[in-house]
Design a protein that fits this description.
The complex is a heterodimer. By secondary structure, chain A is an alpha/beta fold. Chain A contains 10 helices and 14 strands. Chain A has helices at 2-30, 49-65, 79-91, 108-116, 142-157, 174-190, 206-219, 233-243, 258-267, 278-294, and strands at residues 38-42, 68-71, 96-99, 120-124, 135-138, 162-168, 194-201, 225-228, 251-254, 273-275, 303-305, 311-316, 319-321, 326-328. In chain A, strand 6, helix 6 (174-190) and strand 7 (194-201) form a beta-alpha-beta unit. Chain A is elongated. The termini of chain A are far apart. Helix content of chain B is 75%, strand content 3%. The A-B interface holds A 46-47, 70-81, 83-85, 87-88, 91-93, 103-109 and B 36, 39, 42, 45-46, 48-49, 146, 148-149, 155, 158-159, 231, 234-237, 239, 241-245, 283, 286-287, 289, 291-293, 296.
Chain lengths: 338, 318
């Protein structure tokens, strides 16, 4: 009799200890600390320096916030694999999933399953249908790119008067056409004496971009500058200008992919070229996820805090803009290896 | 003869048991190493990602037992998916478009089979040709575009669960049973083995080997059709690059399951184990956060080991 009371007392103490432990555990689970936050970052594919750079930025943000960021994606741009990886992150019960989608609709079912499981979903770099994610981090607007092209040209040429050539991809490229439209609009408002007499297609080919520029500049030697609005055209245009020995007469700027323009920035034949920084997209995506996790993501406030990037603006109810395009110069180009 | 086939049978069971054991160990080890991995519901959820490949692996088992191969399955899956998507976009009702897709898959298989049997061409060459042909048509028809925006009911095939079971996995299980019965309990199954053992002898034994081969490739095409339907429903879109590299996954599953690549032997139970082992290896690696590119290396090593072990088994049985 006496012994059994002692036992029950002991048992009760054990129960109490267990209960305390359970409550502590439950409390811990409910109020997730920063160390428990795991974000699945999914690129279109892992084997591209562009996305490796995005991961670099994301890891930087994760370090600042005490988060864990797991970077995983298909080896090729396989959309079914992306969908599988989302499903696996859901089973892992990660806190948030941030994806650059290979297909706007194909990932929607998996992302909706993630949302149903209470996981925050967002997109960066390439969006999905709006009902499958809360917010999209857009790297650049057409207007921002157009404005930047014009401003860079005026700085590089040292003048805003005269004729300027535009070299594009193909005449039907949707992105390029929107950029050209915006850059003409901005130039017309800001620099009315800036003329764009010709838009020539380089067919996304370095040699072809070089040849069309060569022919045009030989016929129109008074041209003040050339804006190349696609990455592969920029080095082609510069090669043409160099071959004609017109580096000091004809300024070149435009869309720049660091690996393609590094040497020209270094030798001075190109002063500035713009794109966005993939490092910053990755970094920004993690801060956007943080705002969602903390519940501070509010379109009405107009912006989101994004660490060293400052405040990122909402450009619509569910789209946040990374900021102005990133301008590569000889001083910063070595930070990028894509 | 009787005694020999009996011992063959026992050996077959043994090998599948070894594979089953490997599978259990594999799940146990992954569960121990990766916190949160062991979760029945999650493991069942993972079947969603491999049910399509699994279905095709059943047909591929028959193909390989006859001594053939079908490299065109991934390309054919894309063609099926594009058929469904684009005929729906062109105004066909979705149920009809779905049936057209399965039909195209079946015809694709029939096409392979016809060339292999009536022109006596090697399956490797024929299906290498259709590998490019089917994919080419899929790209040309879709013009690098994708079709999406299917009605809600279409999510039935690829996004529905019955309890904890994704519907397509139940589908796969059903076909495993059917194929097991066909291959080990029906005359047709014996013909398939006979053709793989020695086609000439089979012909002299009165088996219409051409019909058997034609049926096997057509059946495989039909399964690709079903898989394509499930795939299109699962990712809710149709595009020409669907199923890239799928043929390699499928053949790997079959070979890992113990089917002899030169034909004549193989079992559905073995293939089922091959499907499970390979798929859950992939699943465990991704779950553990191993990058997909490193995952490929693991899977390659595992496959070579698996084939090696199978070979050892085979030699000991001699």
């Amino acid at each position: 009799m006496h012994r059994s009371t002692a036992m029950s007392f002991k048992t009760r103490r054990a129960f109490l200890a267990a209960a305390v432990a359970i409550i502590a555990l439950a409390g811990g689970a409910m109020k997730a600390s920063a160390e428990d936050v795991v974000i699945g970052l999914i690129p279109k594919f892992t084997s591209d320096p562009y996305f490796v750079a995005a991961d670099k930025g994301a890891q930087e943000a994760a370090k600042e916030l005490g988060y864990t960021v797991e970077f995983n994606g298909p080896v090729d741009a396989n959309v079914a694999t992306q969908s599988d990886i989302i499903d696996k992150f859901v089973r892992r019960r990660v806190t948030a999933i941030a994806v650059s989608a290979n297909d706007p609709t194909a990932l929607a079912p998996a992302l909706k399953r993630a949302r149903d499981a209470g996981i925050k979903t967002l997109t960066w770099d390439a969006d999905v249908t709006p009902d499958a994610r809360s917010v999209f981090l857009n790297q650049a607007t057409f207007e921002g790119m157009g404005r930047t092209f014009v401003d860079m040209m005026v700085r590089s040429a040292g003048t805003s008067e005269g004729d300027f050539l535009i070299v594009t991809a193909v005449l039907t490229s949707p992105n390029q056409n929107r950029w050209i439209e915006e850059l003409k609009k901005y130039a017309a408002e800001r620099y009315p004496k800036m003329n764009f007499p010709a838009i020539l297609p380089g067919d996304e080919d370095l040699e072809k971009s070089k040849n069309v520029t060569l022919n045009y500049l030989q016929a129109n030697p008074e041209t003040k500058g050339v804006i190349a609005v696609t990455g592969i055209a920029t080095p082609g245009v510069i090669e043409a200008v160099k071959q004609l020995d017109m580096v000091d007469k004809v300024a070149v700027t435009g869309l720049g992919v660091p690996s393609l323009i590094r040497t020209y920035l270094k030798d001075g034949s190109l002063k500035e070229a713009a794109l966005w920084s993939p490092i910053d997209i990755g970094y920004g995506a993690i801060y956007l996820a943080k705002a969602e996790i903390d519940g501070t993501l509010d379109p009405k406030s107009g912006s989101v805090d994004a660490g060293r990037l400052g405040k990122l603006k909402f450009i619509s109810d569910d789209t946040v803009l990374l900021g102005d395009p990133f301008i590569f110069t000889k001083d910063n180009v070595d930070q990028f290896d894509f | 003869m009787n005694a020999r086939s009996l011992s063959m049978d026992r050996f077959r069971v043994n090998r599948s048991m070894v594979l089953a054991l490997i599978f259990i160990i594999q799940i146990a080890v992954t569960s121990l190493l990766v916190p949160g991995y062991f979760d029945i519901r999650g493991l069942l959820d993972a079947t969603r990602s491999f049910s399509e490949a699994g279905l095709i692996a059943l047909g591929m088992t028959l193909v390989i037992i006859t001594g053939g191969i079908d490299l065109s399955v991934g390309a054919l899956l894309a063609l099926v998916s594009v058929t469904i998507g684009f005929s729906y976009q062109a105004g066909l009702p979705l149920w009809a478009a779905s049936m057209a897709g399965v039909g195209v898959g079946t015809l694709g298989g029939l096409f392979n089979g016809a060339f292999i049997t009536y022109f006596r061409l090697h399956p490797l060459v024929v299906t290498l040709g259709t590998f490019a042909l089917f994919r080419g048509i899929a790209y040309a028809v879709s013009d690098a575009n994708a079709v999406s925006g299917f009605p809600d009911w279409f999510s039935l095939f690829g996004q529905t669960t019955l309890g904890w079971f994704p519907l397509q996995f139940l589908f796969l299980c059903l076909f495993v049973v059917i194929f097991w019965v066909v291959l080990s309990r029906c005359a047709f199954g014996r013909y398939v083995y006979a053709v793989g053992h020695n086609e000439v002898a089979a012909r002299f034994a009165g088996i219409s080997t051409n019909s058997v081969l034609l049926a096997v490739y057509t059946l495989n095409g039909f399964l690709v059709g079903l898989a394509g339907l499930i795939y299109t429903s699962r990712i809710a879109s149709a595009r020409g690059n669907a199923g890239l590299g799928l043929e390699l996954t499928v053949i790997a599953m079959v070979v890992l399951g113990g089917t002899k690549i030169t034909g004549g032997s193989g079992t559905i139970v073995g293939t089922m184990m091959g499907i499970l082992i390979l798929s859950y290896l992939q699943d465990g690696l991704t779950f553990a956060g191993v990058r997909a590119d490193w995952g490929l290396i693991f899977i390659g090593v595992f496959l070579i080991l698996g084939v090696f072990v199978n070979q050892v088994f085979r030699e000991r049985s001699r």
